[in-house]
Design goal:
Alpha-Beta Plaits, 8 strands, 180 residues, alpha+beta, two-stranded antiparallel ribbon, six-stranded antiparallel β-sheet
Length: 180
């Protein structure tokens, strides 16, 4: 298949989070014009609490602080679709799996982010490529380094490995091992 190599971040912290992530990858592989090339291992990751809590109620802050840990992964795809169409497909998969957008940064059954679309830099209404937080998040860089440590961030000119080595994010990210 011709096309662009892209990276998609996947995460869940509701229900059977690993199963949710697997289902999202299956649904992504069924999108016409998308071929899943590989997927990272699953990682158990500490939730990232948004720094800006101003304007949030005490109940919302408690929800953010008390949410379950995530299962995260990164998937490499090859696609003939444009970036906006990929984003629309990701949003459709989220909706089909029951994603409700309520509390920003809160628990979710599935979260799918278009992290990179080749080496393109795109900034239009509703679409920012590369993902504006990808270079700051350990839960993105750990799985990216597993499957594409050599990939160069199009905005910074630094490899995923280089970004991970410079990372300030101290949140815990470990290989996911299902509880038996």
């Amino acid at each position: 298949m011709e096309g662009v190599i892209c990276y998609v971040g996947i995460g869940s912290n509701m229900g059977d989070a690993a199963l949710n992530c697997r289902q999202a990858i299956i649904l992504l592989s069924q999108v016409e014009g998308v071929k899943v090339v590989c997927a990272s291992s699953f990682y158990k990751t500490q939730p990232v609490i948004p720094e800006m809590t101003g304007g949030r109620s005490p109940d919302e802050i408690r929800q953010l602080e008390n949410q379950d840990w995530f299962v995260n992964a990164v998937v490499e795809i090859r696609t003939t679709l444009r970036a906006r169409k990929i984003l629309d497909e990701l949003l459709q998969i989220e909706a089909s799996m029951g994603r409700k957008r309520t509390l920003k940064g809160g628990s979710r059954i599935i979260d799918m982010d278009l992290l990179f679309y080749g080496q393109d830099v795109i900034e239009v209404a509703g679409l920012s490529i590369p993902h504006p937080e990808a270079h700051r998040r350990r839960f993105v860089l750990e799985p990216m380094c597993e499957i594409a440590s050599y990939f160069i961030h199009p905005s910074y000119g630094v490899s995923m490995r280089g970004l991970k080595d410079r990372l300030d994010d101290q949140n815990q990210v470990d290989i996911y091992r299902p509880e038996v």
